[in-house]
Amino acid sequence: MTQREPSSALTQNHRGWTQSERSEGDASLDESPGAGIHVIPDAGEFDTEQWHRAEPANASDQLVKPAEGLLKPQMTHLRVVGGRKLSGEVTVNSSKNAGVALLCASLINRGTTTLRRLARIEEVNRIVEVLRSIGVECTWLDDNDLRIRRPETLDLASMDVSAARRTRSIIMLLGPLLDESRSYRLPYAGGCDLGTRTVEPHMQALREFGLSVTAHTGFYSVEAPQADRSDRTFVLTERGDTVTENAIMAAAHREGRTIIRNASSNYMVQDLCFYLRKLGVVIDGVGSTTIEVRGRSRVDAEIEYSPSEDPIEAMSLITAAIVTGSRVTIRRVPIEFMEIELSVLRQMNFQVEVSSEFAARNGHTRLVDVTTIPSRLRAAPDKIHAMPFPGLNIDNLPFFAVIAACSDGSTLIHDWVYENRAIYLTELNRLGARVRLLDPHRIEVTGPTRWRGTEVGCPPALRPAACILISMLAATGTSELRNIYVIERGYEDLAERLNAIGAEIQYFQD
C-alpha cells in the first residue's frame, strides 16, 4: 500500500504517526440511540447547524501527547481531491463491534486469550487502556494480534477514568465483571446525556442475575450478586446488540441454564458466542432470537480467536465504489450480514458480481468477494429502513443516503432507531446533494447529484461522518473534512486504504 504524502509541512514533519497518535479525544462520539446527539427541543423546527455550536469535549481531551512526549496539534483533518475513479482490490478488516465485545469478554478467561487481526481503531485503543489500568496485560503482536492475560484479581479502583469516559462501550464491562468484586464504581462517558432509553435495557437484563446498578453523576455504583446455579428465563425489552452481549456475558458466569428471549442475533453477538464456546461455555441458538447459555463458574483457558469481517466497513467500501462509478473488488465480505443490503441495491439497478462462499477464520461466518459494476441507479421503489438482523443493518442505513443521492428520483429513508441521526445526513447538502429533512427520523433524498467540493466539519456520529468522506471522493475540486477523530474510532486507516485503490486523500493539521 502506498500512501500519498500530504502537502502540509506540518503533516510531513510527523510522518510515521500511528492512527492513535493522529487522533484527538472526544467524549461524545458513540452512535448508541441518543448518544452524542444534541436533542432539538422543538420538533417542528430543525437547526442543522446546531451541532456546530455544541460545547467542546472536556478540556482534558483537547491536547494529546504522542509517544515521543511532544505536544501535538489537537485535531487532524483530511483533504480530498475528488473526481477520481477507483480500481483494484480492497480487503474488509475485522469487525469493530465484535472486537470491542471480545475485549470485554476476555475478562471472563483466567487464562490467555489471543485475538487475531483485531481492528486497531480508537474504540479498541480506549478499551485496551481501560483493561491495562485494572491490571490486564495487553500485548500487541504482529499482524494486529492482541494477547490478553488478566490477573487473578482485577484492580477496579485504578480504572483509567479518562479512557473510560471516551467510550460508551464501557457499559459492556458490567456483564463480564458480574461478580468480580462485591462493589465497585464504573465511569460512563462524561458530558453526554446517556438517557434512560439507552441504559435501562442493560439494567433490566442484568437485574435478572441480581446485579444492582445505581446511576450517579459521572459513574455507576455496582453491587455484585451472590453466586448461584439457578435457571432463569427472561425477555429483553429491547433487541439491542450490546444489551444482548451484556446478558450473554453475565450468563457465562452461571452454571445454571439461562434462556434469553428477544435476543439480537447480529454479527457481533455471534462472534461473542463463538468465542465463549471456545472457553467451554455451552451456547445454543446462535443466530436466532432465543439464546440458551450454560455457563461456568471459572474459566482458565489458552485460546486464540479471529473475529470475522465487518459488514459496515464492507458497505462503506461498496458505497465508495458506487459514488465514484468505479469497478472495485471488495474481498472478504460477510455476506450473511449483507444480503438485504445487496438486495435493496439490486432493486435500485446496481449490478454486482459475487463469488462463491468461503468460511471466515472463525470457522463460522460466510464470506464472499464482491465486485462492483458501474450502474445507472434509480430511486428505491419503497422507503429504505433498518431492522434488527436479518434485516438491513441499522449502521448501514446512512450509506443509502449517499447512494440515493446518486440515483434518479427521490428515496425516503427512515432512521427510526437513533434520535436525530438523520439530521447529520443533511450535511451532504453542502456537497451538492438534495436531502430534505422531514422529521428527526426521516429524510427524502433526490438525485442524481453533481457533487462539489467544500469544507465540512465532521459530525459527532460515526456513520454520517463516513458518508461525508465517501461523498467527497466524487466531488469536483478539493474538499476538507475537519476533525476526523470520530472516523478513526470505527475505521482503521480508511484514508490510506482508499488511496491504495485510487483515491487522493491527505492528512493535515492546522
Chain-wise SSE layout:
Blueprint: H1 9-12, H2 19-22, E1 77-81, E2 87-91, H3 96-105, E3 112-115, H4 122-133, E4 137-140, E5 146-149, H5 161-165, E6 183-187, H6 196-207, E7 212-216, E8 219-223, E9 232-235, H7 241-251, E10 257-261, H8 267-278, E11 282-284, E12 290-294, E13 302-305, H9 311-323, E14 327-334, H10 339-347, E15 351-354, E16 358-359, E17 366-373, E18 384-385, H11 399-405, E19 409-414, H12 421-425, E20 434-439, E21 442-447, E22 455-457, H13 462-472, E23 478-482, H14 485-490, H15 494-499, E24 504-508
Helix pairs in contact: 3-4, 3-8, 6-7, 7-8, 9-11, 9-13
Can you give a write-up of this model?
Strands 2, 14, 15, 16 and 17 form a five-stranded mixed β-sheet that branches. Strands 22-23-1-24 form a four-stranded mixed β-sheet. It has a four-stranded mixed β-sheet with strand order 4-5-3-13, with helices on one face. It has helices at 9-12, 19-22, 96-105, 122-133, 161-165, 196-207, 241-251, 267-278, 311-323, 339-347, 399-405, 421-425, 462-472, 485-490, 494-499; strands spanning 77-81, 87-91, 112-115, 137-140, 146-149, 183-187, 212-216, 219-223, 232-235, 257-261, 282-284, 290-294, 302-305, 327-334, 351-354, 358-359, 366-373, 384-385, 409-414, 434-439, 442-447, 455-457, 478-482, 504-508. Residues 1-73 and 190-197 have low confidence and may be disordered. The two termini are 26 Å apart. Helices cover 25% and strands 22% of the residues.
